[in-house]
Amino acid sequence: MACTRFVTLKAIHGTWTHSQLLSPRIHTSGIVRAFSALKSPPSTAVFYEKHGPPDTVTKVIELPPVPVGANDVCVKMLAAPINPSDINRIEGVYPVRPPLPTVAGYEGVGEVHSIGSAVQGLSPGDLVMASPPSPGTWQTHVVKDKDFWHKIDRDTPVEYAATVTINPLTALRMIEDYVDLKSGDAIVQNGATSMVGQCVIQLAKLRGIHTINIIRDRPGSDDAKEKLKKLGADVVFTESQLDVKNVKGFLDNLPEPALGFNCVGGNAASLVLKFLRQGGTMVTYGGMAKKPVTVSTSSFIFKELSLKGFWLQKWISSDRKEECREMIDYLLGLIREGKLKYDMELAPFSEFHTALDKALGKLGSQPKQVIKF
Ligand SMILES: NC(=O)c1ccc[n+]([C@@H]2O[C@H](COP(=O)([O-])OP(=O)(O)OC[C@H]3O[C@@H](n4cnc5c(N)ncnc54)[C@H](OP(=O)(O)O)[C@@H]3O)[C@@H](O)[C@H]2O)c1
């Protein structure tokens, strides 16, 4: 179980009130092992007490040491990404949110700092990732039950270990779980520059599956197209290029796709639907444009399209910890072999707020921000 941390120190940006000083502040479900002799180091953490715009409600504060119980592992965090779902949790619009106040972040990687007396199979210095992912990874030291940590190969690049669970695993499950695709088939997707999208391109290619990719119109879209083609994309179009009556004319020799992925919503989702073949399936997993999916009546009646939704958190929580770790190891293997890669920018923790602004889109289109502790 995760350990409860009591906030009793002065915030780096602000001072705690008397009642804040007296009350337990961070709830991650679990047991407080108050009498353990072993303690974690103090932790510097991205913390929020209320939901709202992430650039205004988050503070970097120092949290005092917490006990490391017999079954606990204290991990010195090395890296953790800023994913869109982290932003949504802080905003308060994600369907499942940790109770407030809390430390932000959901996935990440670190090095074992110390272990409780009953812990076996992990030693100080091991590289471990939060698996299954859980709240509170944006801090320098995390104490959680040993079952939360998955030991991985020391030679895994930390930025990949930090990011492999949420996005690459989503891409893998969506390719495997909805349509029985064979080598030579095709997938169409929007949001192709996203981390999920980049993984879809490469994981599909490894299976001999073609990808038709749609990206938004923005400065740098030509470079983005070239990057995606280097990853293995068969074709890449901006939304405006597809503003024609019959998008199928762009398929050339590619087969009509039976499966489509929708990361964006709005017009970009309609374009995915237009490419799908008779009886095809569109899986929605993101809503980056914050616009609804609109489907024509004829798509249902005459084209017999199916619409599905995928949510990794639900998938993982249905008793799949071991299965999940096997897939993580498979993906990390591809990464170490150079068969799976994606764009990221490592941001020093001291520049957290700049990284957050980039992740919020305030500085234009940016690669995935990964905090380096
Ligand atoms: N359902 C699930 O279980 C699950 C799991 C993982 C991820 N997701 C969702 O998948 C989506 C992508 O996540 P990610 O981490 O892979 O993304 P990411 O790497 O952070 O990239 C963000 C993507 O969104 C695009 N984008 C940003 N603002 C946009 C806007 N206003 N309109 C259209 N596109 C916009 C970006 O395009 P540019 O390159 O043009 O900037 C980029 O492709 C998110 O919605 C995330 O929540 C869902």
From TrEMBL:
GO biological process: fatty acid biosynthetic process; fatty acid metabolic process
Mitochondrion listed as a keyword: yes
Keywords: Fatty acid biosynthesis, Fatty acid metabolism, Lipid biosynthesis, Lipid metabolism, Mitochondrion, NADP, Oxidoreductase, Transit peptide
Enoyl reductase (ER) domain residues: 52-371
GO molecular-function term, one example from the UniProt record: enoyl-[acyl-carrier-protein] reductase (NADPH) activity
Domain of life, source organism: Eukaryota
Similarity comment text for this entry: Belongs to the zinc-containing alcohol dehydrogenase family. Quinone oxidoreductase subfamily.
GO CC annotation: mitochondrion
Subcellular location: Mitochondrion
SUPFAM superfamilies found in the cross-reference section: GroES-like, NAD(P)-binding Rossmann-fold domains
Entry EC no(s): 1.3.1.104
Protein known as: Enoyl-[acyl-carrier-protein] reductase, mitochondrial
Organism for this UniProt entry: Lactuca sativa (Garden lettuce)
Leading EC class: oxidoreductase
Catalyses which reaction(s): a 2,3-saturated acyl-[ACP] + NADP(+) = a (2E)-enoyl-[ACP] + NADPH + H(+)
